[in-house]
Amino acid sequence: MNTAELSCICKQVRRDIINMTANAGSGHPGGSLSATELMTTLFFRQMRIDPKNPKDPNRDRFVLSKGHSAPCYYAVLAERGFISRDEFTNFRQLHSILQGHPDCKKVPGVDASTGSLGQGCSIAVGMALGAKHQGQDVKVYTLLGDGECQEGQIWEAFMSAAHYKLDNLTVIIDNNGLQIDGRNDEVMSLGDLPAKLRAFGFDLHEIDGHDLDAIAAALDAPAASGKPKCILAHTVKGKGVSFMEDQVGWHGKAPNEEQRQQALKELED
């Protein structure tokens, strides 16, 4: 799939994120919009998956560690053919398959239930280690939030990934600089994150997380033998909607009807 096609899908994913959260009156648009290019490229260009056989034991795996960005996940899964877009009107409603955080027992294409921040990388490490033990040619991808990287369990998982030489694991960090309480540097600075990631044993690729070609190149880069890969993607929270961009208030707040229409107009333009 070429860049122009991916760009069109990204625009639709962003519209779906806005509509889902506006319809529900709740949700997390900011971090969903920042992850759009990363997840679209991963699901449409990179991963070995089959919507007709979502439990294929030989499929690649994905863990959305920052589970609150479920609107992006659901929009991508629908575009990829795993779920119907008709489900979007039920987002965050009682008994819906599309809960506020992804549930692997309910949603085809979801490999792990997530939402408690800090746990997703450990799950992905376990999946990658299991594939190694079973001799499976399976790649595992996980998407983390940068604020989430303040969690100690994340760094324990990083150490484990290096220790077990998990070159079938790719960790993607959505580095948008904001978390629920403010800017990361003000809440709990991560310091020199690239240096720390290298020191923890990653084959590091630092990119613009909205540049589709850069994302594809980082994902395509051959795995360094015996080293897990990390893609540190610099992004903008709320990307694509001017009044949401780089605004911490849009971490977990849904647009009202007027804001929905303004956002959709911008995404059409």
UniProtKB/TrEMBL annotation:
One GO MF term: transferase activity
Transketolase N-terminal domain sequence ranges: 12-262
Keywords: Metal-binding, Thiamine pyrophosphate, Transferase
The protein, known as: Transketolase
Transmembrane region(s): none
Species whose genome carries this gene: Vescimonas coprocola
UniProt keyword annotation of Transferase present: yes
InterPro entries in the record: THDP-binding, Transketolase_CS, Transketolase_N
